[in-house]
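Tokens for chain A. Residues wanted.
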């Protein structure tokens, strides 16, 4: 789960990292009020889960509350690479002398956190990595020992961090490592890591991503999720407790068990189609869960056909059939559905479907045959397999 800059900074502060004082605002009036309370010059910063806000016009300095209000009016509603700005962070403006870069990333291949430090901050770090790789110092940290002070110093020397601020940068790296571990982060990035003209070291920006599987240990962070910013289908799935991943094809997929759903995606591809989603109703699905899952798939208007691929183990095919019948009674389903039912109680399930005489449901015997049918229906032709 990705956090907004202001949320990341709140976590930073809990671990002792120096950040500017600030306030959240949702309207120009709130931005004006925040600027008044903070006093002096402020920065009005768009809060979106996307970098490059500065270049997109999402970050502006304001000298007084009236100006903060005007800048807020400009920024709210701005589309930053597909993310619409609904929330602002108003913070005390900082004077900039130097901009460094620091990040901690979880390197899955090495199974260790990877630190990256550079004096070339503020800009695209990918560009630094590509054009002047010698200016990007990197170091793996053994998670058993954690980051030790001498290692952080070594990294600072490797990156040629200026001597006047070296100790403070080292201290901040240790605090950020502490935040990374204690909050179960997958990524912590500070760009720019700011050096002010009087030698103060500050995290001027924050990218903070927390491992979804650890959120149960951090209810406070889980609460930070902005449901408005989520994809509507994924939000629905989250509420209904269904495993759902949105993809960009036309054939809606529903299966039981992750392995079966994965191979269903493959056969759709094999039949020349593109899956619209991954949806796993899990073992022992009930009719209500089937209805809820169908609702999620149908709320995606790119879906042209749906492939139900069920292998009944714990799941009884009769429950699935009942779910389909109920869903078609309750929902206005225009999209054709291809069903492949096999395993526990499949004969009874298939009989239920046949008896219900549903006009837009086709039953197929094999997985590949069903996939071909679903792909053909999605493109408005007839199956060739
Ligand atoms: P990003 O563009 O999404 O990475 O947003 P940042 O928070 O990193 O801000 C982008 C740039 O805006 C920074 O690199 C700074 O140059 C500038 N900036 C941000 N905050 C301040 C501030 O308090 N004072 C000044 N002078 N510039 C700022
Ligand atoms: Mn930044």
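Reply:
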């Amino acid at each position: 789960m990705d956090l907004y800059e202001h949320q990341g900074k709140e976590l930073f502060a809990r671990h002792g990292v120096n950040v500017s004082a600030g306030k959240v605002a949702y309207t120009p009036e709130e931005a004006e009020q925040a600027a008044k309370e903070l006093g002096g010059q402020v920065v009005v910063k768009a809060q979106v889960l996307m970098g490059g806000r500065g270049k997109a016009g999402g970050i502006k300095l304001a000298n007084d509350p009236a100006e903060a209000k005007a800048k807020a009016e400009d920024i709210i509603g701005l589309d930053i690479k597909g993310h619409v700005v609904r929330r602002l962070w108003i913070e005390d403006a900082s004077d900039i002398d130097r901009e460094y870069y620091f990040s901690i990333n979880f390197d899955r291949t090495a199974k260790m956190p990877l630190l990256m430090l550079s004096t070339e901050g503020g800009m695209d770090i990918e560009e630094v990595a590509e054009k002047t790789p010698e200016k990007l110092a990197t170091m793996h940290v053994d998670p058993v020992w954690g980051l030790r002070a001498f290692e952080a110093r070594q990294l600072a020397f490797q990156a040629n961090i200026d001597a006047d601020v070296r100790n403070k940068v080292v201290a901040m790296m240790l605090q950020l490592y502490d935040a990374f571990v204690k909050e179960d982060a997958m990524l912590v990035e500070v760009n720019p890591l700011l050096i002010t003209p009087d030698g103060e070291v500050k995290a001027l920006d924050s990218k903070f991503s927390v491992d979804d599987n650890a959120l149960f240990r951090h209810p406070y962070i889980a609460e930070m999720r902005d449901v408005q910013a989520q994809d509507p289908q994924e939000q629905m799935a989250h509420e209904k407790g269904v495993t759902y991943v949105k993809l960009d094809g036309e054939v809606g997929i529903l299966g039981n068990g992750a392995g079966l759903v994965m191979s269903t995606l493959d056969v759709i591809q094999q039949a020349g189609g593109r899956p619209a989603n991954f949806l796993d109703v899990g073992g022992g699905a009930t009719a209500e869960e089937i209805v809820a899952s169908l609702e999620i798939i149908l709320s995606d208007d790119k879906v042209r056909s749906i492939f139900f691929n069920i292998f009944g183990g714990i799941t009884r095919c009769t429950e699935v059939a009942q779910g389909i019948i109920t869903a078609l009674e309750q929902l206005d389903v225009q999209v054709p559905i291809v069903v492949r039912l096999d395993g526990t109680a499949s004969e009874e399930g298939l009989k239920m479907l046949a008896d219900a005489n549903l006009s837009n449901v086709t039953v197929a015997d094999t997985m590949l045959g069903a996939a071909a049918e679903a792909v053909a229906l999605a493109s408005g032709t007839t199956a060739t397999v």
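The mean pLDDT is 94. DSSP finds 13 helices and 19 strands in the chain.
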